[in-house]
Amino acid sequence: MAMKKLSLKKTTVGKAPEKAAAVKKTPEKAAPARLTSTVRRLASTVSGKVSSVKKTAVSKAAKDKTTGKVVVGIVMGSTSDWDVMKEAAQMCRDFDISYEARALSAHRSPTELEEWIADMEKRGCQAFIAGAGGAAHLAGVVAAQTILPTFGVPMPSKYMKGLDSLLATVQMPKGIPVPTMAIGEAGAANATLAVVAMLALTDPAMRKKLLDFRAKQSEKVLRARLPELK
Ligand code: AIR
Description:
alpha/beta
């Protein structure tokens, strides 16, 4: 623990003076008033670290060509979730829905998560898809900060096979709903399909795309043949 603290401190101190000042200034301004100065100091250190994480984090954006809006916000607790969460992004692409995918953690980068949600709202976002593993608070935290529909995707986890993620995502207190999908890839893809169904309520083109998707899916099942006995 002492070692970790030391290396975090080193990262901040090791920056060029103007950079270190910038790192310190922004998070302090954004930190909620209830934070004690010790926590605020910690937040500024963590944020300094996060800004470097941002560069390597999964961050994909696709704007709507005609409106310039980003319709879906896909967020995951870690870049290690991307293999699963890319299914949500792929489904957005298949339905030609603009999205932005980011790795932001409810625990490790709470301030940046809050800022991103507010930014996405300004950019025309209509729904969030949030996937996290373990003590997976991400979807609930997103849902608490927006009235846009927020779908939760529990990540498979090493020791509990995603059961921990599922319960943490689905067991929300009354008042803040998180429609929760299946654990893993199916859940990620279905989260986008749920958003598509929501958009289809008011968008006839999207409704047609969804009906076509369902028809093709049924056709595939009906065309499939069982293997012969050997
Ligand atoms: N996580 C990250 N911050 C809060 C949570 N719950 C989750 C991630 C990931 C898991 O912790 O969503 O599924 C492990 O993350 P990592 O970065 O250690 O691989």
